[in-house]
Design brief:
The chain is mainly alpha-helical and 285 residues long. The protein has helices at 18-38, 49-57, 72-86, 118-129, 136-144, 160-170, 194-209, 221-232, 236-240, 245-259, 263-267, 274-284; strands at 90-92, 107-109, 177-181, 184-188. 49% of the residues lie in helices and 6% in strands.
């Protein structure tokens, strides 16, 4: 995916009425939110939170995630919710006078402008078409297909890992192979661009070792989200394993500090991404 994908292109139009003006303002907000994802060196491969978490979980040579990891599925759905939140597409309903908790507040579609990512747009459409709205916890379950309500199974996002892996193949990070596992053949996606993987691992390590990460009011939202989501998807250890004993202990201590935060209080800070804190709360409750 090149740098311009995911941006919403908008023609300059003369505002004729208030609704047109509101629509134009939404488009401007979407551009600013998408730029948060798209900024940086144009030569560097840009990855979504979902792609980053999957890449951390994939075995480099084998090209598949651990068979014992039963957390990555829900973790990737959390990535989708936060990615949509950071791009300004969804938000939580107002807390109201009674100060509803993060896990009690519904997810509201703020803008239905396409993101340029098929998975994100599919999830966004489900949220837009759902009335009444649902909570973050419910959406993680629905998008994962982990619900007892048969009426909600239509919201399941299928083959998410395979679709994300194909995105990474298109970006030149992975390749596609067939491997035989005695009774069946399986499509795998071994690593081809080690530079991207090393850069990602280094990014996670530096985020955890950076003192400012625990000062969440000033921490980079994407770095914070990546750390917490990697932990929730049980792939964080893959990034921390190469660290020295001293740095490993410091990194894990910083992550524990983040897990011990009062998510409700953090969500009340100015410029906080409330849906991000709601996802954190859902995974740590």
């Amino acid at each position: 995916m090149n740098r311009t994908e995911g941006l919403v292109q908008r023609r300059n139009v003369v505002k004729e009425n208030n609704s047109d003006g509101n629509r134009e303002n939404h488009d401007v907000d979407d551009k600013k939110s998408d730029k948060n994802y798209d900024d940086g060196d144009s030569k560097e491969t840009r990855l979504t939170l979902m792609e980053e978490v999957l890449l951390l979980g994939l075995k480099d040579k084998e090209g598949y995630t651990s068979f014992w990891n039963d957390c990555i599925s829900s973790g990737l759905r959390g990535c989708i919710l936060i990615e949509l939140g950071l791009r300004g597409r969804v938000e939580l309903e107002r807390a109201g006078m009674r100060r509803k908790g993060l896990l009690s507040r519904k997810v509201i579609v703020k803008s239905d402008n396409p993101t340029g990512d098929v998975l994100l747009d599919e999830a966004l459409k489900h949220m837009k078409d759902t009335d009444p709205p649902e909570t973050v916890q419910s959406w993680i379950e629905y998008l994962s297909g982990e619900t007892w309500n048969p009426m909600k199974l239509k919201y399941q996002l299928k083959n998410v890992r395979e679709r994300l892996a194909k995105n990474l193949v298109e970006k030149g990070v992975l390749t596609t192979e067939k491997q035989n596992f005695l009774l069946f053949d399986m499509t795998t996606h071994p690593l081809t661009d080690n530079v991207v993987k090393c850069r990602l691992v280094k990014k996670v390590q530096e985020a955890a070792l950076r003192r400012s990460i625990v000062d969440v009011a000033h921490a980079d939202k994407r770095s914070l989200a990546l750390l917490m989501l990697a932990h929730s998807a049980d792939v964080l250890e893959n990034a921390f394993a190469p660290l020295s004993d001293e740095d490993y202990e410091l990194a894990t201590r910083r992550v524990r500090s983040l897990l011990d935060l009062d998510f409700e209080a953090e969500a009340m800070r100015p410029d906080a991404c409330e849906i991000m804190w709601a996802v954190f709360a859902a995974f740590t409750k």
